[in-house]
Amino acid sequence: MKILYIHQYFTTNEGSGGTRSYDVSKYLANMGHDVTVVSGLSSNAAFKPLPWYRLFRVERIDGIKVVLCNVDYGNNLNIPQRIWSFIGFAFLATIACIRERGIEIVFATSTPLTVGIPGRIGAAIRRIPYVFEVRDLWPEDLLAAGRMKPGLIYKTWEWLESFCYAKAKKIILVSKGFHDRMLERGFAPDRLKTVLLGADGNLFKDVKPDFQYIKEQGLEGKTIAIFTGAHGDANGLFQLIEAAEYLRDRNDIAIVMIGQGKMKESLKEAVKEKQLENVYLLDPVSKTKLSGILAASHIGLMILKQIVRPRWVTPNKLFDYMFTGIPTLVNFPGTTAELVEADGVGMATTPGDAQDLAQRIKYYADNPEERRRVGEAAKKVAWQKYDRKIIAAQLNDVFNECLKK
Questions:
Q1: Fewer CB atoms < 10 Å away: N or C end of the chain?
Q2: C-alpha dihedral over 366, 369, 371, 375, to 10 degrees?
Q3: What would the pLDDT profile of 203-234 be if each residue is shown by its tens digit?
């Protein structure tokens, strides 16, 4: 089948962002499908910029046709700039969808919700199935996190959410928590399907620990508790700074944060002000390099800002930690904490309690055999349930079901 896959933040292993769209597209192509991805230019990706006068560029990557729209996006953009990026991509992606020939199914993955505009329009013009994937429950997640207030703007996003869902043959949810919430909201069970983010096992299969990087960063001989990903307001990374204060006396433990975002400079200032020598705020690296760094680390950190209710997300970094074979600590209640404890691959800390987070880090630092045991269990579970070859096969089944109806 010919699949049109819309994702504004498409990234390969050469970039530093999430690579799920790349991985599943690659595996769908390996199954014999014709996959075209429509994407923007994310700062996390490794794509070369386009000149201002050129709207599109086509690249061929591992059997995938990638149509790049000349719209930039980055975690450092302010809210008006982000909205402009979302609107610009929706407009250009709609043109790209209309231009593409022979499409049999359209698959749009959010966020942002605006990807549903080209997805729904492109499918409607050709009278073909449209599948919408939910990676964050916008706008209610934004409201719960205090990043949006009730009012006209919120109502506009609610309308857009309804627009995205209305004509979707299937709605894919990337966590059980999202699935449960959609059922609560009255969506028909047969329209919903949970397909987790997972990770590409091949990236970790024969990975060698990058001890050279560890040495260059002054981390030799330390137990490394690592966070990878965005350094935004929603990530709540200041709790790691608080935890590091409780670990001042442990020169053998390092809190490492790799990534970028609008809060990174504020985090650096906090570390400097508190004179913490056990916190390392490092630049983002490619996914390929990151796998070696994780293999040289000891504890994976899942950190998010505390909100008024449990969180339904299951971020992809969890699965990276699992494939690496390191235990995970989760500081927020909800789906991720439940998964980690059910699979026996780590521990949930007391939400909002930096001292408890520090104690759990200390526990794994002081019990290397237990740490290794949990890590091995995590790796085994990851290969059994969360490899992206399995994820791609699940999506393939959804697409085939939609085409038969």
A1: C
A2: 170
A3: 999 999 999 999 999 999 999 999 999 898 88
